[in-house]
Amino acid sequence: MAYETILYEVESQVATLTINRPKALNALSPQVLDEVSRAIDEAAADKSVRVMILTGAGKAFVAGADIAVMSTMSPLEARRFARKGQEVLFMLERLEKPVIAAVNGFALGGGCEISMACDFIWASEKAKFGQPEVNLGVMPGFGGTQRLSRLVGKNWAKELCLTGGMISADQAKEIGLVNRVFPADEFMSEVNKMAQEMAGKGRVALRGIKNMVDEGYDLPLERALSMEAEAFATCFASNDQKEGMSAFLEKRKPKFRTN
Ligand code: HXC
């Protein structure tokens, strides 16, 4: 499929979606959102894709929604734009394959928001995070007030959104927004290595884990545990369970099906 504002490539079961408007620091325009949603559909339909990486070209991950585009929006258009972005971020969250946010640089506003819709965030030491919308006289609209507080607590979410300040990758790790920080020159090769390793696991288990953590999070524990037992049982109808357990007992590495 042809894309103009993103790059999408698949190698060894890992799809890499790179937002590619480096001159505008990869700002999210309606076209970018549209192409990201098409690429997510492409990854969902492609059985050879096990894991997805989301990253940005050049010095930024994503410096936010496109301010030039937003500057002339009416309230109605702004609501539509917010809903469109939220929908695309939901697609990342609901994709039945792990999505790693590989944050190489600025992740501001909509950039921070799209990283939080991924399953976890790995960052280069050069990354910077923030919700600077307040500096533009507006507020977050792609989930910043919601996912951020769920990830790091209400107090940090409020500080970041109310001050509009930026934090470093290390600070983002300290507050629990980022899982790991890597040296800049090894960043993408490390992310790729770990993504490939994850892609070698069984598909049924990867899907079950992602779905259960997300679906169970907002439910009462008892209900969520009962859903977990169902999902666990589903694994036992798969070849992956047979292969994984036989391989352990036979003291060899499992070879999960790749299709
Ligand atoms: C459009 C952007 C942009 C953005 C940067 N650019 N961020 N264009 N939308 N969000 C453009 C600049 O205008 C400039 O274009 C080029 O990218 C390089 O940016 P510079 O500012 O020259 O780079 P630098 O001095 O390194 O500063 C980097 C920066 C700064 C600190 C990241 O660009 C910045 O503050 N950007 C805005 C960040 C922000 O406010 N994000 C939140 C947006 S609101 P030219 O043509 O001059 O070279 C949002 C809402 C989401 O995300 C929810 C919507 C519903």
How would you describe the overall organization of this protein?
The strands form 2 sheets. The protein has a 6-stranded mixed β-sheet with strand order 1-2-3-5-7-10, with helices on both faces. The chain is of the alpha/beta class and 259 residues long. The chain has 2 domains: 6-199, Alpha-Beta Complex (2-enoyl-CoA Hydratase, Chain A, domain 1); 202-250, Lyase 2-enoyl-coa Hydratase, Chain  A, domain 2. A hairpin with a 2-residue loop joins strand 1 and strand 2 (14-19). It has 11 helices and 10 strands. It has helices spanning 30-45, 67-70, 75-94, 110-116, 144-152, 154-163, 169-174, 187-199, 203-217, 221-235, 239-249, and strands at 6-11, 14-19, 51-56, 60-62, 99-103, 106-108, 120-124, 128-130, 166-168, 180-182. Bound molecules: hexanoyl-coenzyme A.
Topology:
Elements: E1 6-11, E2 14-19, H1 30-45, E3 51-56, E4 60-62, H2 67-70, H3 75-94, E5 99-103, E6 106-108, H4 110-116, E7 120-124, E8 128-130, H5 144-152, H6 154-163, E9 166-168, H7 169-174, E10 180-182, H8 187-199, H9 203-217, H10 221-235, H11 239-249
Parallel strand pairs: 2-3, 3-5, 4-6, 5-7, 6-8, 7-10
Antiparallel strand pairs: 1-2, 8-9
Helix pairs in contact: 1-3, 4-5, 5-6, 9-10
The chain binds hexanoyl-coenzyme A (HXC).
Hexanoyl-coenzyme A is lined by residues 24-25, 27, 63-68, 81-82, 85, 106, 108-110, 132-133, 136, 140-142.
